[in-house]
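Complex 437.
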Amino acid sequence: MRPKTKSTFVLHNPSEILRALVGLKDVRILAYERRGPHVELMIERILNDVLCARCGSPARVKERPIVSYVDLPVYGTPMALAWKKHRLCCVNPECPTGSWVFEDHRIAAKDCLLTTRAAKWATVQVGAGRTVSEVAQELACDWHTVNDAVTTYGEALLAADHKRLNRTSAIGLDETSFVRFSRRRQNYATTVADVQNHQIIDILPTRDTHDVARWLSARPTDWKERIEFGALDMSPAYAAVYSVVLPEVTQVVDSFHAIQLANRCVDTVRRRVQNEQKGHRGRKHDPLYQVRRTLLTGEEKLSDDARERLMSSLELGDPHGEVVIAYMIKERLRDFYQLNDVDAARAMLSEIQHHCLKPAMPPEVQQLGRTIRTWFDKICNYHLARVSNGPTEALNNLIKRIKRIGFGFRNFRNYRIRALLYAGKPNWRVLDSIVVH
Ligand SMILES: [Zn+2]
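Predicted structure with zinc ion bound:
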């Protein structure tokens, strides 16, 4: 078939454009055509002596189907690659082999709607934190096309990258809710992170003690033996995992979770006091509602204005000083994390705990005190881990990043691949050599 002449560019130097656009040996450009905002490049694979895989007889061309692929944009123009393929059949009339299409993974993998280079590019983009829809928009194709390609190449990369995991002395287990099929049902995943190398090790589709324990005990012995610290939220399930599988490991409650708990306490007290004072939930002009975010901000981060507004709002909306109590305890707990001395930290947490548990304290604060009492040693171990360079702080940022990715995911497989590409530190150089057939 001759290339269409209408709106087809004449190529003065096809091989040069080929190098720029495809760069593959034995690939020939047939046409280069502009269609509205898109440019379509038609190519074919040059075949030399293809033989039947079953009997070794020569193959002959039966059909030339044209299959269209999404390619990388060139200078911002979306590109489509039309591959004029060869459907071949065996010349031997006795041979039972049916016809087959000649594939070339360098151009595009079978069943992938992106060209190989576009698929790898998309995988890198998503790994860098861009959303699938952004990438799809840039490639002028739909979400599923990009998502399928990223999943395929991402899984292949993670499987091929044997050196992805680093040696570590500190891991963390964290629960992430990633699916909400309905209002009533929410699914949970467990993120296993290497908090020393700021890297996600894996994501498990469960938060069940037995499942997580089984996964952890299946890791190589030398890897497990190196672990000194195990970070966790205040969940008995993960504490049990460590106690059963890695009993020697020092368990550390992550500071992020402890402060989150104190913040939640402030918020609960604020809501209750608000309700008692006004008889309704917070509204725009209610003093306590106006400072709901300021209350959760670190005191040292407040401007003089913000601090003044906070004081006057509390004077108006918190006549018995209950919000103030919760707020001060939250700030005290934040101070606890600033300490450098293990013994001083222990003494301070003990003081916070006793203060919370006083009968005159608001019920929410007493509840916080009971939680601190339950997790006391593991909260204090934060300082032990810090002294011995066990990085617990790092987990916070990692988790925040993962949560951002996890938001809105309905499909665990998608979520896992996305999170591992983004925060699992794959060796991107391995992607070049990935072959998906
Ligand atoms: Zn044959």
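The pocket of zinc ion is lined by residues 52, 54-55, 57, 90, 92, 95, 97 (CB under 6 Å).
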